[in-house]
Amino acid sequence: MTQNQNTVGHLLALCTILIWGTTFISTKILLIDFTPVEILFFRFLIGYVVLFLIYPRVMRVSSIREEILFMAAGLCGVTLYFLIENIALVYTLASNAGVIVSIAPFFTALLAHFFLKDEPLSRRFIIGFGVAMTGIVLIAFNGTFRLQLNPLGDLLAFVAPAVWAIYSVLMRKIGELRYHIIGATRKVFFYGLLFMLPALFLFEFRFNLERLADLTNLSNLLFLGVGASALCFVTWNRAVSLLGAVKTSIYIYLVPVITLLASALLLHEPITWITMLGAVLTLLGSTLSERKVRKRVRGSKLSGIH
């Protein structure tokens, strides 16, 4: 991979996380009139339509095995991850879920270590993970260290990042197949929506479009559908194909930091010294993890190890 491709990969991952880190604001506003499963279905339906308009060609795969890869990616990255995360929030505190879900890079590194050839799991990555998680805990609890365990919700919150890790590994494998990135992402969305259909009958869902007459609802849903889904999944998947599943997943550490800044700027929530310290530790941890991965990958290429 050239230096230019490496730079593009990092920029794509950073831009994706900048948007994903602010989606909680739109979701919070939409929850007034929409249920979590309604938001999930409508945003990915909008995302699918947008991707189809941009790339309307029918994408044919070469084998059943490749089709199964796309099906599994849609099931994990769209249906299961978001449903499990939303259900977890019903049974546990948002702060608990926020911290637990942030361990996705560790799960990704663990799976990639065993299932991908060029994705190393190093000691520096583990140290960076520990530093980043310390920062994320400080941001989430903001100095109020009250341990309140909610077994079912916390367990589901642990499952969510594990599912996202599987999605990341699957997208790395799909990226190696050299399909058009927009067509591939659209196919993943298709299967995600397909597997989501049974959930519409299990949870409260209304196909009531009158709510979109409200400009606030419409604009926030378009932001989630066009920006956070159609655009961001394409840029994230491209970043995974350029950088690898492990290096890209490290950017997930930055989500709480971006959320913290967005809360201060848009919702005027106060920033304390505890949260500032947490932000610094999170940035430091992500830097430690990414640097070692970059060094190991570069060294493996020079020595001819693949």
Rg calculated over all Cα atoms: 19 Å
Shape: globular
Count every beta strand, where a strand is a DSSP E run of 2 or more residues. 0
Structure classification: mainly alpha
Task: Tell me what portion of residues adopts beta-strand conformation.
Answer: under 5%
Mean pLDDT: 82
Distance between the termini: 13 Å
State the main characteristics.
disordered C terminus; globular; 13 helices; 306 residues; mainly alpha; single chain
Characterise the protein shown here.
The protein is an all-alpha fold. The chain has one domain. 77% of the residues lie in helices and 0% in strands. The chain contains 13 helices and no strands. Helix 2 (23-30) runs antiparallel to helix 10, helix 5 runs antiparallel to helix 7 (123-141) and helix 8 crosses helix 10. The longest helix has 30 residues, at 273-302. Mean pLDDT is 82; it is low at 292-306.
Structure described in brief:
By secondary structure, the protein is mainly α. It has one domain. It is built from 13 helices and no strands.
Secondary-structure topology with pairs:
Blueprint lengths: L2 H18 L2 H8 L5 H19 L9 H28 L2 H8 L2 H12 L7 H19 L9 H25 L5 H22 L12 H29 L1 H5 L5 H12 L6 H30 L4
